[in-house]
Write a structure and sequence with these properties.
The complex is a heterodimer of chains A (176) and B (566). By secondary structure, chain A is of the alpha+beta class. Chain A is built from 4 helices and 9 strands; from the N terminus they run βαββαββαββαββ. Chain A is elongated, with a radius of gyration of 20 Å. Helices cover 38% and strands 16% of the residues of chain B. In chain B, 56% of the residues are buried. The structure holds thiamine diphosphate.
Amino acid sequence: MNHHENTHTISVLVENEFGVLARVSGMFAGRGFNIDALSVAPTPDPRVSRMTIITHGNALIIEQILKQLNRLIDVLKVIDVSSEACVRRELMLVKLRLNDKNKAELAKLADEAHGKIVDASDPRIQILEFVGEHQEMEGILKKLQPFEILEVVRTGNIAMQKGKNVLMPFPGEAVG
Amino acid sequence: MKLTGAQIFIQALKDEGVDLIFGYPGGAILHVYDELYKHPEIRHVLVRHEQGAVHAADGYARVTCKPGVALVTSGPGATNTVTGLATALMDSIPMVVISGQVPLSMIGNDAFQEADIVGITRPCTKHNYLVKDVRDLQRIMKEAFHIARTGRPGPVLVDIPKDLQLHQAEYVPYDQVKVRSPRAVLQGHSGQIKKGWELLKEAKRPLLYVGGGAVLSQASDELKKFAYLTKIPVAMTLMGLGAFPGTDDLSLGMLGMHGTYYSNMSINECDVLFSVGARFDDRVTGKLSEFSKHSKKIHIDIDPANVGKSVAVDVPIVGDVKYVLGEMLKMAEAAPAFIQNYHQQIRPWWEQIRQWREKAPMGYQQGPKEIRAQYVIDMLYQMTKGEAIVTTDVGQHQMWAAQFYHFKEPHRWCTSGGLGTMGFGFPAAIGAQLAYPEKTVICISGDGSIQMNIQELATAVEWKTPVIIAILNNHFLGMVRQWQELFYENRYSEVDLNVQPDFVKLAEAYGAVGLRASVKDEVVPVIERALKVRDRPVVIDFVTTLEDNVYPMVPAGGAVSDIVLA
Ligand SMILES: Cc1ncc(C[n+]2csc(CCOP(=O)(O)OP(=O)(O)O)c2C)c(N)n1
């Protein structure tokens, strides 16, 4: 059995029902599974929402997570995209306090990391926006350490499979 | 045709063929009760505590295989259903519980008798609903019943706000109501079924390990045919009892913590272990690293999450037991010459099992005076020819009932296996008795457990249900005392039940029959008397040995081979 713990990215389509987030997060909490990050938003079909759940665990735990997700009535489709070729993106906002000396240095750093200044309403404060893979965000944060970071907010990765694979719910089977 | 929410609800019950429900009224469900008043064709059993309603619905479901239905009010009425829902979820029992809720506009305001019952019961239901629009009610009711009985069955709760019970919506003919269907693979992968059969064919020491899934999927016929044909020994879990006749030579009785020596040795030593709707529960496996180490494993289960959860399986087959076993039976039937050889192939295994049986047969010694609990159950078994419906509470009496009452058929044994709920037995017996008024229904209980839902005596008297409550009265919380004796050096912490009601007088106070047996010779006569009563419940207080222990016993967390015989 594989006891090695890995980070996994799980894409889930759910019915856009009242309480569905509580069902999913409650299942994780109740069974002692971890949620490292979670994002959820409606799809173009307003009846369906899409979640991206970042979790970790050994192979047995990940298998149970997938199976337990599938047991939830409101869950339409579950796929572990960890080993698939994916575009993964996280959005990060960082609020920093500047002084006259480091302003230029920060601008350079932000530029290199494709960051954008999205707020400078206070001349001493800036909010920078970064987009990239989770690991890149970690790297950027490290580089920002010398500055005075006031606040960080991150979405966690969302993921989409490359190529023609598309995540679609099962055709809902109606019974008479 | 426009109907109110309450009318749609009643109609939905009728559409599902429900003619018996258990419940308790209150403010938030009053509109529904008012409508119910006009529909005497739906019998409503007024319990005396909502927990009783849910367990009664559960007992009804276990013996009929139809979803049980309970109706309660908001807040405290709804929270009183939690134990019953959790009990049903753990044992995969189909059930629909409907609760009233405060009016929609007041939800979230800490209104009088408001509880977030959908939030509270999310982890102890298969699914639940808060109805927010009366136009969804009919679909939700149909879906609730469908989900409760489809795939791995389970309880579903529907919470209906009070104002919505009066809102109007169009009533649609039942067959035109579209519902979502839970995804369940019923048929099992034919390649896997074949693989399982091939593996079983190789076996020299095969064992059928039969669980509650075989009962729930009503697979007894397939199981019996398969076992009779192949002559593979059959061991059953607590929940599997009755799926195969306990009286048959092929039966090794119950497995697990208090199972027979020979079934536990067999699971330890077999070379192919075939789980038929059993989920490798810790009460069966004991210490996982030591569990059935020499065997390859085949596992049929309708719930993929059960497969490979605690024990690695060589041939997983996700599907309905009835179907999968039926397919395997066809393969076996198509190979008569092989079957002949197979009986030879497994003969040494049967010889080994015979030796284990001889070494430690199940039995007990009954002296001239003091009543042994095992004797009481044995007499109940003999005097009802093994044909009664038996419910239990939780503790020593439950294990002795499982050991000494041998079931020939499924759906006659109702016990809370997964959750181990004291207080389950008596209301479940009422539910079972109302489903089968002519049958003998016995609730085997302890002096501790029976007091957890004793108030239902009033319900049983009102409905003239002749449930026999056999209290095995050891004046202790016996099973806990046993653990304290064995694992806590006799420190009997809070298990003394010497202060207790006079159960005979208590029964009489409720209008039931009260009987007592204090010495051995009184046992058979009181059972005889009890069996003759058909118009009211009977409580029998069997005063038994105070400090008796259930054996065999696999100590919790120990290996199956650590089994203690006495
Ligand atoms: C609701 C509930 N509370 C506590 C327990 C823990 N428990 C398991 S067995 C037992 C003792 C039961 O005593 P009794 O009903 O007298 O049966 P006996 O073991 O004596 O046959 C207890 C307290 C339980 N299973 N259920």
